[in-house]
Backbone:
């Protein structure tokens, strides 16, 4: 499963990219507004850091306007993926862009029928919002399973991008189901590393190592010097 970071914060993106586990990034108008920076410059900088697909969302609500925005956004960087809402105008835009080979992420998906429409419109990614469905008492992961199954049945190429991920358990669940991508905030990404047995085991190894009496570098250098003399 590919891991995307869901933020427009450059410090978070730089930190996560330094871990070597980031495949791409998703942004949305709310995340961009939160940073208070220039949209186009922010998207360019994210693309340069991530060196993978970066979703930039249009805000026009009619297809002509979406296409104008999309054509400009695509010129910012080769890694820009155009994000459109799951509306009739959004899917009309998706169909037109995907026909030209432009990658499109269809966002705000909350049902299997919507996901079916996005696949038919040639979406590169469909973004079902797991957390927001859970928030209203539905089962977000069940929707991910339904879409993965449907796309397999009908051989659609559209990738299922599990979005609105709120905690590590969501990541575990959607990876078991077979989502192609999962996008999550920096906090959740960082939490994926955590396990008390890792911390406990690491502390025990370090404590036992104290009895060895010297560092790894010192012993390795001594050995290598001896061997080469
Ligand atoms: C996905 O592309 C969206 O930006 C994001 O996952 C929405 O998450 P939220 O429901 O936590 O705002």
Residues:
């Amino acid at each position: 499963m590919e891991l995307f970071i869901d933020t427009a914060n450059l410090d978070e993106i730089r930190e996560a990219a330094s871990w070597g586990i980031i495949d791409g990034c998703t942004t949305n108008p709310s995340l961009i507004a939160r940073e208070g920076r220039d949209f186009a410059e922010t998207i360019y900088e994210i693309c340069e850091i991530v060196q993978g697909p970066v979703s930039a969302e249009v805000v026009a609500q009619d297809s002509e306007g979406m296409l104008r925005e999309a054509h400009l956004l695509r010129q910012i960087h080769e890694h820009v993926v155009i994000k459109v809402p799951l509306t009739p105008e959004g899917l009309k835009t998706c169909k037109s862009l995907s026909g030209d080979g432009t990658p499109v992420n269809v966002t705000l998906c909350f049902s299997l029928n919507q996901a079916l429409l996005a696949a038919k419109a040639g979406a590169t990614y469909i973004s079902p919002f797991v957390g927001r469905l859970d928030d209203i008492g539905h089962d977000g992961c069940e929707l991910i399973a339904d879409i993965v199954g449907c796309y397999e049945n009908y051989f659609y190429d559209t990738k299922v991008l599990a979005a609105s991920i709120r905690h590590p358990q969501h990541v575990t669940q959607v990876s078991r189901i077979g989502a192609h991508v999962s996008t999550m905030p920096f906090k959740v990404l960082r939490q994926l590393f955590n396990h008390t047995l890792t911390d406990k085991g690491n502390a025990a190894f370090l404590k036992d190592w104290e009895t060895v009496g010297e560092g790894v570098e010192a012993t390795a250098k001594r050995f290598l010097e001896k061997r080469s003399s």
